[in-house]
Structures are given as C-alpha cells and as structure tokens.
Automatic annotation (TrEMBL):
Coiled coil: none annotated. The lineage of its organism: Bacteria, Pseudomonadati, Bacteroidota, Sphingobacteriia, Sphingobacteriales. This is UDP-N-acetylmuramoylalanine--D-glutamate ligase. Pfam families: Mur_ligase_C (PF02875), Mur_ligase_M (PF08245), MurD-like_N (PF21799). It comes from the Bacteria. ATP binds at residues 120-126. It comes from Sphingobacterium tabacisoli.
Length: 457
C-alpha cells in the first residue's frame, strides 16, 4: 500500500498549518477531521474564499501575521512549499525539533490509494494532466492533486479515490520523508529555483530524486535516459523500483522509445506492446513526445488497453497558458505560453514552432542563463518584444542574435507591436522565461491579459 504507517508523526494534539492557500486549507480540514486541534497562520493576507472555508469548518486562523507563541507549541507542522528554509520562523521550528512536513506527506498517512507522482523541471503539468485524462478515460476512480487541481489533503478528507496523480515540485519533495510513490516519474532536471538550493545544482538534483525515496521492488521509476543531469545522478542512488527509461535517442528493451518509423513504442514486461505514430499525438513537439512517453508508461503500468491510450493521446487538449493556441489572425498564429517561467521551458516552446517567431520575453528574472537559447533564437526568432520592468539582461543576451529587440509599456502595447512586426505565416509567442510578479499577480493573469490583448486586435 502507498500510505505511510501512522507512527512517524503525532496522530493527535496541536497541528499548525503555515500558509493558507489551497494546500494549507486542505491540510487544515483533513487535520480537523482526524481530531487535531488545528491552527492556521499566514504571514500574507488570506484570500476571502479560503477565510470563508476555514470559518465554515470552525478552524482557528490568523491572517497577515505569525504569532510565534501560537506556533511553537505545535506537535506537528504542515508548511506551504513556498516558505523557504532560511525564514527565521522555520529556523526556530527546526531548532525546536517539531516535525515540519508538506501537505502531501501529511495527507499520505490517511490514504491507501495508489500514488503516481510526477516531478521534473519542465512538463510536469502537461504530463500530470495527460496521465489523469488517460486514466479517467479508462474508467479509473482517479484524483488529480499536488501542484495542480484541488488540495490532495482535502480530497483524502472528503473524497474517495483509488488512484491519485500528483504533480510534485522540488519544494514539496524537500518536506517529504516517509511518503512513498507507487509510480515515480522524473521527467528532466534543468537549472531552476537555484536560489533555494544555495545555487548548487547537486542540491537541486538531490531534491528531485527524493521522488524515489522509500520505493520498493514492487514500485516503478520512470525517467528520461536522454536527460544529462538525471543520467549523471543515477549511480548515486540505491534504486529498488523497476526502472523504466524513456528515450528518443536509443532503443530500450523495457521502457519507451521511438522506432525508425517514428512510432512511439512502449514495452513493459508482461504487458501488451503499445505503438502509435508521433504524428497522431494531439500534443506535438519533441518535448511533448517525452510527456506522452511518460504518461503512456504510467498507463501501461496501470494495465490500460492500447485502444484507450491511443484515443487519449490523440484527443487530449493542453492546459491553459502552456503552448495554448489563442487565435489565428491575418495568417499569424498567436500562442500563450505564460507558464514558461524558466529558460528551459522557452527552449521547448521555440523548438515546437517553425520560423518566423515574434517572441514576448521578460518579467522577474530568476538569474536566468540565456546561453542555451542563443542558437534557437538565431534560427527561429525574427524579433523579441521585452515585457516587464527589467529588460537589460535580455538586450545583453540577444542583441547580436536578432535584428529587432524592443521594450513595451504593457501587455496591450507588446501585442500591438507584435501584430505590426508579424507577417502571414509567423507565430507570435508569449514565452517569458521569467516570473510575472512585476506587472501581474501570477502567470495566469499574464496569460489572460495576453489573450485579451490578442482578441482585441
């Protein structure tokens, strides 16, 4: 069974939740249902909808502050993945020796459902949604949670799923210790969030590999054998699960690969072999072949029929803000890829489209290294329109690679400029490589403003 024995953490007493977003409120409700004395604390202002949920459940909370005396007396603490280890309160809690865990770790104690856990620097959301879509189409009683959808803890408390597909970030994995994935998927590892890992790639890699901790010989580990960082790290870990590689470079006896006819082949011992030409996949582009391989391997592990898999892979529609087609205006294709908040995501986006691309780039730079984009930008991008407050690093990185780099004053302005620069057959691509917090609340708002501006053309 996937759940952890109920002896690792206190099963009663005072449960303190730090952060009252989707995961925090869900954990609070599950804690209440399990008989804990629950207190929720958020340094920011709690959204009205979450305040109402907590009030309706009769759960005590504070908003806009952390009262240390009400937190340091906890028996167990569930913290939001967004709170960094270097926060003074977290340091105090660590010194006090109070168990400090993630919502996923907390909730996993209370379910016997099969847990499919998907992590990676890029492609997590698409692969998680596609996997959920496929399993649901096959008639499984399956929940969707983690970084996406409704809180895992809330679903464990109030729903009854046999299987969960969980999108897991490195921040979540950092606070998971006894949790075990029945199926662990590691899509890729590229530099991201290094500010949270002392700017050491090895620390970030170690965090990603926590997805396989506690796995047994009865479990499965799906990984990309074309991914340099993953392959380099494999020898450092004692992997007990059945290893299922996916590759577009080789042929593997067990796993997923492409044959000479560009058929995606999935072969797992004691299962029927699956084959589907990549031209038939609804999600196109090299990176989406990997996403389909990962989802297909999960489906095969779950013993789905080939016909169901083919129908799902051929009909799935991508999530909003990830290579989302917005409109075709005057022969120009407008694509919303606002979810691309790192350089690697932009690389995937550029790889998915043919020249000529007008690229909207910029926002809050997380210390991006734009070197990996240079060749693709040179080959495919005719103009870059900078969005966001600080655009100097984009100018420095690409002024020798493209003829046109201009700044914009707003998203409306950026789209107007793009529409004048783009000719019939071109693609206008919002793929920012940066966080959105200078002009927008989040990447969703950024994507929505782009879509609004395009539809207003």
């Amino acid at each position: 069974m996937a759940n952890i024995a109920n002896t690792y953490y206190p099963q009663q007493g005072r449960l303190v939740i730090l952060g009252a977003g989707e995961s925090g409120v869900g954990a609070a409700i599950l804690g209440k249902d399990k008989g804990f004395d629950v207190f929720v604390s958020d340094l920011g202002v709690i959204a009205e909808s979450y305040q109402k949920q907590l009030q309706d459940e009769g759960i005590t909370f504070e908003s806009g502050q952390h009262t240390e005396a009400a937190i340091l007396n906890a028996d167990v603490i569930v913290k939001s993945p967004g709170i960094p280890e270097k926060a003074p309160l977290i340091k105090k809690l660590r010194e006090a020796g109070i168990p400090l865990i993630s919502e996923i770790e907390f909730a996993a104690q209370y379910t016997d459902a099969r847990l499919i856990c998907i992590t990676g620097s890029n492609g997590k959301s698409t692969t998680t949604m596609l996997t959920h879509y496929m399993l649901e189409k096959a008639g499984l009683n399956v929940g969707l949670a983690g970084n996406i959808g409704k809180s895992f803890a809330l679903q464990v408390a109030r729903a009854d799923f046999d299987v969960y597909v969980l999108e897991i970030s490195s921040f979540m994995l950092d606070d998971m210790y006894h949790f075990r994935a029945d199926v662990a998927v590691l899509l890729n590892i590229t530099p991201d969030h290094l500010d949270r890992y002392d700017y050491k790639m090895e620390n970030y890699v170690n965090s990603k590999f926590r997805v396989i901790q506690n796995q047994t010989a009865n479990d499965f580990f799906i990984y990309c054998s074309d991914d340099e960082e993953t392959v380099k790290a494999l020898p450092r870990f004692d992997i007990k699960a059945m290893m299922l590689p996916m590759t577009q470079e080789d042929v593997v006896s067990a796993g997923a690969y492409l044959n000479e006819k560009k058929d995606l082949i999935i072969n797992i011992p004691n299962r029927e072999i699956f084959a589907m030409n990549i031209e038939e996949l609804s999600l196109q582009g090299r990176h989406n072949v990997y996403n389909n391989m990962a989802s297909g391997l999960v489906a095969k592990v779950q013993e789905l029929r080939n016909q169901t898999m083919k129908e799902s892979m051929g009909s799935y529609v991508n999530i909003p803000h990830r290579l989302e087609h917005v409109a075709f205006i005057g022969g120009v294709n407008y694509i919303n890829d606002s979810k691309a908040t790192n350089v690697n995501s932009v690389w995937y986006a550029l790889e998915s489209f043919s020249p000529d691309i007008v690229l909207l780039l910029g926002g809050v730079d997380k210390g991006n290294d734009y070197d990996m984009l240079r060749d693709l930008v040179k080959q495919k991008v005719k103009a870059i329109i900078c969005i966001g407050k600080d655009t100097s690093r984009i100018h420095d990185a690409f002024e020798d690679e493209v003829d046109v780099i201009v700044n914009s004053a707003s998203m409306d302005d950026a789209v107007q400029i793009a529409s004048h620069l783009a000719k019939k057959g071109d693609t206008v691509l919002l793929s920012p490589a940066c966080a959105s917090f200078d002009w927008f609340k989040n990447y969703e708002e950024r994507g929505d403003k782009f879509k609004d501006a395009v539809m207003a053309l």
